[in-house]
Design a protein that fits this description.
The protein has 231 residues and is α/β, with parallel strands linked by helices. It is 47% helix and 16% strand. Bound molecules: cytidine-5'-monophosphate.
C-alpha cells in the first residue's frame, strides 16, 4: 500500500526538519518542502533528502512561460518528484510545461501539480478579479484549463475533489487544508478531514500544522495515518 500522506515541513531549520522526518517517517509517505525551509536548509539538503524520501517542492511558480520552464527544470535536478505551479499562469505556459513534464518524467517519476484556488481563500477573501465567478467556478475553470493542456496534477481543496473527479476522472488531486476534527483550521478555510478527502477521491493529502505544531509529532502523524489506513 502506498502512503499518500505528505507532511509539509514548514519549519525554519534543517535540524527541526530532520527531527520531524525522524519522528514521522513510519507514518507519512513523503515530505513537502516550501520556501521557508528551502532558504534555510538549501538546495543540497533538498537533494540529500530526495535520495531517501519522496519529496514535493512547493514553490508555486507563476511567471512567464520561459521562466517557469527553467524553474521546473532546476527543481527536477534536485531529485524531487513533485513541483507546483499556479494554473493561473494560463494555457500557453501550461501547454509548454506539459511538454517538459513528458520529457522529464521519462527519466524518473516526476509530476507538475497546478494549484487552482488556494485553500486559504473563501468566497469573502477571494481577490476581486475572481469574485464574480466565485471559488467553485474558478476551481472548475482552472482545472479544465489544466486538463486541456494535458497536465493531470492539480492542487485543490477536499471540498472540490468529488466534483472535479466526476468531470475529469483521471486528474491526480492533491489536497491541502486537511484537519482532524479536533485540530484548529488556522488560516485554512476550505478544510476536510483526511478520511473525507480520500473518500472524495484525493490522491495525496498534504498536512502541516496538525503534525509539526503538535506536542508529539509522531503521535499526531500516527493518528492521521490510522484515521485513513486502519479503519
Ligand atoms: O499547515 P497546513 O496543514 O495548513 O499546511 C498546508 C500546506 O499546504 C502549506 O505548506 C501550504 O503552503 C500548502 N498549500 C495550501 N494550499 C494550496 C497549496 C499548498 O495550503 N492550495
Amino acid at each position: 500500500m502506498s502512503n499518500n500522506i505528505f507532511l509539509a515541513l514548514d519549519v525554519d531549520s534543517q535540524q527541526r526538519a530532520e527531527e520531524l522526518i525522524h519522528q514521522t517517517s513510519n507514518w507519512v509517505g513523503g515530505y513537502k518542502v516550501g520556501p521557508r525551509l528551502l532558504f534555510s536548509a538549501g538546495t543540497e539538503w533538498v537533494k540529500s533528502i530526495s535520495n531517501k524520501h519522496r519529496v514535493f517542492l512547493d514553490l508555486k511558480f507563476y511567471d512567464i512561460p520561459n521562466t517557469m520552464l527553467s524553474s521546473i527544470r532546476s527543481s527536477f535536478e534536485l531529485g524531487v518528484e513533485f513541483v507546483t505551479i499556479h494554473a493561473l499562469a494560463g494555457p500557453e505556459a501550461l501547454k509548454q510545461i506539459k511538454e517538459l513534464e513528458d520529457e522529464l518524467s521519462k527519466k524518473r517519476a516526476f509530476k507538475v501539480l497546478a494549484v487552482t484556488i488556494l485553500t486559504s481563500y473563501s468566497e469573502d477573501t477571494l481577490p476581486a478579479v475572481l469574485k464574480t465567478s466565485g471559488v467553485e467556478k474558478s476551481v472548475e475553470a482552472l482545472a479544465g484549463e489544466v486538463f486541456k493542456s494535458g497536465l493531470r496534477g492539480i492542487v485543490c481543496s477536499g471540498v472540490e475533489v468529488k466534483n472535479l473527479k466526476t468531470v475529469y476522472p483521471d486528474l491526480y488531486c492533491v489536497t491541502p487544508g486537511v484537519r482532524l476534527s479536533n485540530s484548529s483550521n488556522s488560516d485554512q478555510k476550505r478544510v476536510v478531514t483526511p478520511r473525507q478527502a480520500l473518500d472524495s477521491g484525493s490522491d495525496m493529502l498534504v498536512v502541516g500544522r496538525p503534525i509539526y505544531e503538535a506536542d508529539d509529532a509522531e503521535a499526531a502523524a500516527r493518528q492521521i495515518f490510522e484515521s485513513v489506513y486502519e479503519k
